[in-house]
Fold:
Amino acid sequence: MAAWTEYGRTSGSAITSVLAHLQNFTRVPGGPDTEELQAQAMETTKRVLGEEHPDTLTNMNNLALTYRNQGRWKEAEELQAQAMDTTKRVLGEEHPHTLTSMNNLALIYWNQGRWKEAEELQAQAMETSKRVLGEEHPDTLT
Structure:
């Protein structure tokens, strides 16, 4: 725990960083489960930094994508929608993290066969990205 403190306070960024690095071990047979580590990271940053902190929102996005990759559409959608709504409110509708959350939710809609909702959200994210970041920015192009 000492490595997770800065100036006598628990550092959420340090916690997030350590837990993110631990995820590399999930590729090792017998290593910890990615979903479990992501859930721990999300709960820890929520408790330490608050539900609206960017690190918490990033951890929510990561766990939602893991649920998506597992085909757990309902859980993925609920968590991703919560992350997107909070990111939009806290960081603003044009922030790159908000645009990433929008794209992630659009992917979940796409995987569920909800083509129209996916297309509308993806188009909104792309148009905002073009306007804010520029047409040739890597985030706009991907």
